[in-house]
Amino acid sequence: MPRVSTSKLTAVLSAGALAFAAAYAYRVYKRRDEPSAEEQAALKDNAQLFKGKELKLLQQLLQLDQRHLFDNWKPPGEEDAEKARLVEQLQQLDQTYPGGLAAYVSNAKRLLADSKAGANPFEGYTPSVPQGENLDFGSAEFQELEREGVKAASNAAFVLVAGGLGERLGFSGIKLALPADTARGACFLQVYIESILALQKSSGASSPLPLAIMTSDDTHALTEQLLEEHSHFGMQPDQVTLLKQAKVACLSDTDAHLALDPKDGFKLQTKPHGHGDVHALLHGSGLLSKWQQQGVRWVAFFQDTNGLVFRAIPAALGVSAQQNLDVNSIAVPRAAKEAIGGIARLTHSSGRAMTINVEYNQLDPLLRATGHPDGDVADSSGFSPYPGNINQLILKVDSYAGDAGPHPGPHSGDFPRELPDDAKVGFTSINQVWGQQYSPVRNSPEDARAKHKSGTRTL
Ligand code: UTP
After folding, report:
1. Residue 170: what are its φ and ψ, rounded to 5°?
2. Does residue 331 lie in a domain region?
3. Kind of pairing, strands 388-396 and 125-128?
4. How far is the centre of ligand 1, averaged over its atoms, from the C-alpha of 160 (Å)?
5. Is Transferase one of the keywords (predicted)?
6. Do 297 and 253 share a structural domain?
7. 247 lines ligand 1 (CB under 6 A)
8. How far apart, in whole angstroms, are the C-alpha atoms of residue 133 and residue 152?
């Protein structure tokens, strides 16, 4: 009998063990990949039409209580192309959301459950008034800061978030094309571009100040058309960059069920995700690092129908430059307990601190729970010391483009959450004296009239 050396035997045994392990792992893998009887039933016996990633995605969705998506599926062989169309859309949505559709549905479920339970996301935090400037429009201090800001504008870039649907307004066109001034009939986009060109000139900038516009499927083509029809309102075509945000699936209820199109049972309803996408787009497209290399120091973010925002941007830029702020939120004076978010510094019992927007219905209870029995009350100025957030920001490029990375949340103003504790985050609140500095076109005339009658802001 031939002798087999111990080392050879060990080698043969290990090879056998390996082969066995591989076969076992494959079977387990196969088994995990194969749909269970319950999954087959939910998919109306159509599982074999899909394999690999597609099938895995369908299984994930079933685990996330989305079986209603397949309720109207017929047996295999009937309407298979339609089923494939829905699965293709699901895959596309899976690829465009960080973490995929499963992460999207899980996040939505968690947020909806927290809101149903009335959970306070700021439990454990103590609010205090953040670093900031309260300025009266046109005051000597304002003018001084404005002069500083005009100088700083020579190294500024501008970002306009304009992907919103404008559902509340009920207007079929894009909001940027609405008239912003009645004397000339100039639209919002024209007023914005003219303001940037004026800053470009008065700051003595050595190169054109860049403008990025975030669009979505709902606004992209019309924004492009508006720019082209008006020769970019005087900007050089390559001065303007359009970045299109992806859409996310709509939810049909508070259990985060994905909503099928009522007119097409093989299509999900989708909508833009929120203006927070702008950070991921600026980082991911490489535009931000390009700007940084070109010497851009400040990025000013603003929204589609805020006709007065350029009255505030130069002074706010002045504050950013003077105080070297990483983040500067342009804010408005806010009456105590008024129903808009307030900017607050929140310090956790663990020592972690951040300056962010706190919704009014969270701010008042948080103050009451942390030693302020009357909650959000006015100070000697007659306003709450927590200024009103309007989601118009000025960010310092070096910190923004740094390690913090973009947060895929729905609000652009959530960005400071990502910053280290010692980041310099402040606000510039400008009292327009004669009226509201923040008066976007948001509601239909009927809704605005009703709001006005009830004494609330008509935003
Ligand atoms: P709004 O809060 O006014 O929302 O957006 P909206 O989507 O435009 O309008 P409704 O809610 O459907 O009535 C504030 C700003 O954020 C932009 C809007 O274009 C506007 O400048 N936005 C909003 C985006 O760029 N993307 C989005 O997904 C949502």
Report:
1. 70, 35
2. yes
3. unpaired
4. 11
5. yes
6. yes
7. no
8. 18
Q: Please tell me the predicted confidence (pLDDT) of residue 459.
A: 57
Nearest Cα neighbor of 59 from 81, 90, 24 is 90
- Cα-only R_g, the chain: 27
Residues 381 and 436 in one domain: yes
Instruction: Indicate the length of the chain as a whole number.
Output: 459
Residue 308 in 3-state DSSP?
coil
Low-confidence ranges of the chain (pLDDT < 70): 1-33, 403-413, 433-439, 455-459
CB atoms within 10 A of CB 282: 26
Q: Is 167 in the pocket of ligand 1 (CB under 6 A)?
A: yes
Q: Is the CB of 330 under 6 A from ligand 1?
A: no
CA of 274 from ligand 1 middle (Å) equals: 7
Q: Are residues 97 and 193 in the same domain?
A: no
**Which of 88, 117, 146 is at the close of a domain?**
117
Distance CA 386, CA 430 (A): 13
Number of domains composing the chain: 2
Give yes or no: residues 21 and 148 share one domain: no
Segment 440-451, tens digit of pLDDT: 777 788 887 887
Beta strands per DSSP E along 260-387: 260-261, 264-268, 270-272, 298-303, 327-332, 342-348, 353-358
Q: Are residues 79 and 112 in the same domain?
A: yes
Is there a domain that residue 429 lies in?
yes
Among 161, 245, 392, 451, the mutation site with the greatest number of ligand 1 atoms within 8 A of its Cβ is 161
Question: Does residue 341 share a domain with residue 319?
Answer: yes
- Cα(50)–Cα(32) distance, integer angstroms: 15
Q: Are residues 436 and 327 in the same domain?
A: yes
Per-residue pLDDT, 354: 92
Contact 215, 243 (CB under 8 A): yes
User: Which amino acid, 361?
Assistant: N
Q: Is the CB of 325 under 6 A from ligand 1?
A: no
Which of 426, 172, 398, 169 minimizes the C-alpha distance to 296? 398
From residue 129, how far is each of 51, 255, 327 by CA, in Å?
A: 55, 36, 15
Range of the domain at 18: 6-117
Residue 374 to residues 113, 339, 360, 371, Cα–Cα distance (Å): 29, 16, 14, 9
Q: How far apart are CA 273 and CA 250, in angstroms?
A: 9
Domain boundary residue among 62, 85, 117? 117
Asked if residue 304 and residue 193 are part of one domain, the reply reads: yes
The answer to whether residues 419 and 326 touch, using CB atoms and an 8 Å cutoff, is yes
- With a 6 Å cutoff on the Cβ, whether 442 touches ligand 1 is yes
Angle at which helix 188-202 crosses helix 309-323, to 10 degrees, equals 40
What pLDDT sits at residue 104? Answer: 94
Distance CA 135, CA 145 (A): 10
